[in-house]
Amino acid sequence: MDPLVGVLVGRQREREALSSFVGAAGGRSLVLKGESGVGKSALLQHIADLAAGEDHQVVRAAGVEAESDFAFAGLHQFLHPLLPHVERLDAGRRAVFDVVFGRDEGPAPSVMALAIAVLDLLALASSQKPLLLVLDDGHWFDAASAEVCGFAGRRLTGSSVKLVVGLRSDLPSRFDTAALPVLDVTALSEADSEALLDLHHPGLDARIRPVVLAEAQGNPLALLELPPFLGSRSATGPGELPRGHGVPLPRRLEYLYGTRIAALSAPVRAELLRGALDGVGSGRAAHTTRGTRYRMTDADEAAACGLLDIDRSSGDFVFRHPLVRSTVVQTATPNERREAHAALARMYRDDLERRATHLAASAVDPSEQVAAELEAAARSTTRRGGALAAIAWLTRAAELSESREERSRRLADAAFIAGQAALPDQARRLARADPVQDGRDVPASVVASAYEALYRDGEVRSSRRQVVAALEALRDDPGPGAGEVEVRLVNLLMVTCQYAADAVAWQQARDLVGTLGERVPVLSLIYRDAWSDVVRHGAGVRRRLDRAFAGRALLDPWDVVRLSVAAYHLDVLGPHRPYLQRSVDREVETGVTAAAMTMLHLIMLDQTASGAWEEAERTGVRGLDLAVERDHALFAYHSRAYLAQLAAMRGQVERARELQTAVDAWARPRGVGFLTQIADAVGTMAALSEGDYEAAYLYAIGITAPGSFEPCAHQASRTLLDLVEAALHTGRAEQARRHALAAQEAGLPAVSPRLALITYGALAMTAEDEQDATAQYERAESLADNAGFPFELARIRLARGIRLRHAQGPKAARQALTRAAEAFERLGATPWANRARAELRVSGMSTRPSSAAGLTWQEHRIAGLAASGLTNKEIGERVHLSPRTVSSHLYRVFPKLGITTRAALRDALGNAPEGSDTRGPADGA
């Protein structure tokens, strides 16, 4: 057993702190931080012994450098002893762990989703006896595991779980930003250093003793290791040990271990090397993601000279210290390392990603078999969020490819993923690693450079021209292995055309894609039809989209994001928002920031559409901060455009116009029509909020003329209600009616639920007789998905109330006006709420806010669902919350409404409670 872990000398300050930590009531976390060899492992063993003596269950884990790039590898060690408790969790939490443990091929969960599941698991595991989690070498934990442990560690208060983490102070750690309490572990005092030296090396030569104390400088590992080394060198003096001149103590200890390793027999050195390369721990035998890692055998010679210890629980050889493990690798020759990796690859024949790691390091000559295995591992880890590992494996696969075509294809794959991961410099290097063909840039280089120019600088026109030229060249002379790059060029062409929002560009793209025939995949055709012009091409796309989403688990992250963009254009994004919210943190953490920023845009859009405006604001600001941080101008102005739209809807006109001006000034010179259209839509909405209907009309007709829908202008159909309302208020009834009829004739109700709602609303607002108006209004009210768009529904109700007051008198208008006013108040659309209240006063009703006006949108939605008779569990399934959270919302709702029972909800909310027959904003369309 390691003497460092057996007996503590001194350390009174640390002992008291750890004793207090174990004895304190409730859950808490602590980080032990110090230089290598300072005694962190001994203190971790001490606290584990203390906890075991207090009848705690102790679970231990250790970070391993060889696994620092494997997602969830570190977390798996912590969770492995707690697996029996997973089956007691609900289905949603079990599904999260199924992905983490590799039992399910679904998308990797977000940090928050996984951390919450881990907290639930820890609560179950500690229900019978307190639990202590001990993590050594936390600096080697993979990013996902460290994030989850940090998140959970900050939220242990009130539980029976404690977490203690050991970190090296000389290495950066993913725990550095976890904001956990830190106990610094410093060197031993002079007196304690002497006591430790006397305990383990009694009778040390008087000539060597002061040298050891001076060299060790209070480091316990050095105090233990230096005496035998210096004693064996006494004939030539201690000067052979590298010392002074700024050489760090760990480096000097590595030299010491190197001399011991060199003295071992070749078979033992090979055994140590296999263990070191596979990440065998120091002080314990740890589990890999899918089983136990390599077990060293016949290594007694290494144990005898102090390089290995025996794990107390398993009886396996383990490295005495991480410095031993790293020194074994550093002192091995390249051939020895390759042979060890080859042996480990054979051992992990059933573990795709771990086998790929060792294969990549063992191969020397080109091998198509090895390259194919690396490529398969890259595809697997890409779907689980491991973009950086995928780039490394694909790059190595390209180096090992036997044909030039396969090499080019794999480099292109690596360059593409690097581009999606916002690593433009690496993407360019990878793309240009394949030489220019016939004086032309290779297609992979075009993909990389065009994405960078588009995302970073908004170069829509030049990017599109570059992609068109590359596609035409590839179409005429595809060559072997060109299919994947061709598909990427097609999809990139769709992206550039979407941002251009130009009918000529889209027609050129349609013509070019048409010449490729069946080489164009189904997904690309969905992007083309949904992104270009839903008025003319949107019919039937919803069914194709649903079929594509059914195979989401097999799609790459960027294809899921593109399908979600199509869902936004068809106003059916709501059901997919939970997936985006689960995935966005993972994409940010793993560096796939292009996908992450688009996810944030989509989440914000659905939050805005469904009425969760406070959440939408926070999401938009997060997206803007990320885009600015990563220097992606296009995404930054994209975020500003959506924030401007939200501000205009809320009546924050000054802010809306400030953002509108910034977006327009940047986007218009670059030809980014997608954003200039949003800027015009912001101008329309801001003017409507102010009641400046003439300005609103002029903005609206700048997007599309009354009675028509400008081709390939995505805001043309989305601003249907804006144009009609502005026209009616400015005495242009004929233009308003013509525009509403044009929407009906274009078949917009069949394209999307939102377009159905605003088309029927526009027809009701412009109807020439009251019977027709009533019929169209009732069609709008009867739509199953209308509550997914509360702002538009409230505007239609307001217009209906105004019309009824004029046609049938004040009393007939009150219900529609009341429902509109309450909806605007819940949303925070202040000018609209004021307008509705003013109409209510004219109709003879008091403008005193309703009893429900003090509820937030979330509270009102949950209260409405509860009033309809749903249980907390059923409500939670509708709005994507836990039953406990639903109960908490209702607990706050009751005193706001002045009621004490669930049965009183319906009366408190009114006879027709908002949301009582709806799915609420989070459920979408």
Automatic annotation (TrEMBL):
Superkingdom of origin organism: Bacteria
BP GO annotations: regulation of DNA-templated transcription
Any Pfam family the entry gives: AAA_16
Location of the HTH luxR-type domain: 848-912
Keywords: ATP-binding, Nucleotide-binding
One GO CC term on file: cytoplasm
GO molecular function, one term: ATP binding
Protein name in the entry: LuxR family transcriptional regulator
Source organism per UniProt: Kitasatospora indigofera
